[in-house]
Specification:
Elements: H1 3-59, H2 66-76, E1 81-88, E2 93-96, H3 106-112, H4 119-126, E3 130-133, E4 139-148, E5 151-161, H5 163-211, H6 228-272, E6 278-282, E7 288-291, H7 317-320, H8 326-337, E8 342-349, E9 352-361, E10 369-376, H9 379-384
Antiparallel strand pairs: 1-2, 1-5, 3-4, 4-5, 6-7, 6-10, 8-9, 9-10
Helix pairs in contact: 1-2, 1-5
């Protein structure tokens, strides 16, 4: 996955996470604010009309006055009020939307009409307003005692709808979500521009520069930069410089080692192998490293006649041994399977019967070499040749 894709997923995930946490915070804040506002407005409305209700209750507990009826009607017609019950100090229903319930006792009324909470009882006991949420409904049950000189004259119970508050909360949350997405975009666009301009494009250029590095000069063509990407490019340049130096050293060492090994084999074969013997030394790839007789193949090593251009590769064993000499090839295969052991057989080499010996020299971590010796059965003929 590309850096830009990872950045987009990470930025989007963080943005959604922050928006979610912010949404929870603001939802609860809006809920508390607008619910408190709804409760306070309801209490203020009742307190505004309370003097009229108190005067009516103080004048006559049994019959509601015209002013009280007008006030109660105004309160009941408020769009936030879902239901209203007006009781006197004896617990009798003074006003209800169903006129047949008026003058009923509270006990009779509560049997016929289900009250959502016990707010009325708590308000009567505490002599102070009680606000309780209605379970499973967007309502508050608000019971407010009506008192005069410390004496409770009656109680007003309102079921206030929270739908208006919920609509305001939902509207506020919608605006919050739109604003949060807008802020996320306002932050994301410049940040992505910065990422693309100062990170991704330089990385693409660095990749192209690395891909265009030639193994001839190991030169990284990338402009200098005073940032972390420039530091990486400079480190790559230093690395390529070291690789170039190491490869030059390795080539020199390989060349010197090849010449040294060729001289070593020449010395060994001259000192140990009789002149009538023919010897061939091959590496692990069966490329000929040294022979004590001339062959018309270019190798650039002692003992092999140079008859072509200097760029020719080392001759292969099959260039020296006829492929028809299956016995020799079989013997070399056996020697490879039995390292450091001499295996021998009779064969014909260059139309001359001879006894061949082969040994595969192998040491752990060292180069592998195979020595093949051809001992002519007629030494006199071999000496004449």
């Amino acid at each position: 996955m590309s850096i830009s894709s990872k950045w987009f997923l990470w930025f989007t995930g963080i943005g959604i996470y922050v928006m979610f946490l912010g949404g929870i915070f603001y939802y609860n804040l809006f809920k508390w604010t607008f619910d408190q506002k709804l409760k306070q407005e309801t209490l203020d409305m009742v307190h505004l009309y309370a003097p009229t209700l108190v005067r009516g209750l103080n004048r006559d507990q049994s019959v509601i006055s015209i002013n009280e009826l007008d006030t109660i009607t105004r309160i009941a017609n408020d769009r936030r009020v879902a239901a209203l019950v007006y009781l006197n100090k004896y617990g009798e229903v003074r006003w209800f939307k169903d006129p047949s319930k008026i003058t009923e006792s509270f006990d009779e009324f509560s049997k016929e009409v289900t009250l959502p909470t016990d707010a009325i009882a708590k308000a009567w006991q505490t002599k102070s307003p009680v606000i309780l949420p209605v379970p499973n409904l967007p309502l508050y049950d608000i019971a407010i005692p009506l008192s005069y000189e410390g004496r409770a004259l009656g109680i007003l119970d309102l079921q206030v709808s929270r739908e208006t508050a919920l609509n305001v909360i939902n509207s506020a949350m919608t605006k919050y979500a739109v604003g949060a997405v807008g802020v996320l975009l306002l932050l994301g666009v410049p940040l992505y521009f910065f990422l693309h301009r100062w990170v991704l494009i330089p990385l693409f250029n660095l990749r192209e520069a690395v891909e265009s590095v030639s193994f001839k000069n190991f030169e990284l063509k990338f402009p200098a930069r005073a940032d972390e990407i420039g530091d990486v490019a400079e480190a790559l340049k230093q690395f390529l410089f070291k690789v170039k130096g190491e490869m030059s050293t390795v080539r020199v060492r390989e060349s010197q080692r090849g010449l040294s090994e060729a001289r070593w084999w020449q010395s060994i074969l001259v000192a140990v192998v009789p002149k009538s013997y023919r010897a061939i030394v091959v590496d692990e790839d069966n490329s000929v490293l040294y022979t004590n007789f001339q062959i018309p193949v270019v190798s650039g090593i002692p003992g092999i006649e140079d008859k072509s251009s200097k760029s020719a590769s080392k001759p292969h064993l099959l260039d020296v041994i006829d492929t028809q000499q299956q016995e020799v090839l079989r013997l070399i295969g056996i020697a490879l399977d039995r390292p450091n052991q001499v295996v021998e057989a009779d064969t014909v080499f260059r139309s001359e019967p001879c006894h061949v010996k082969a040994i595969h020299l192998e040491e752990e971590g060292e180069l592998r070499r195979t020595l093949v010796l051809f001992e002519p059965k007629n030494p006199r003929i071999a000496l004449n040749q």
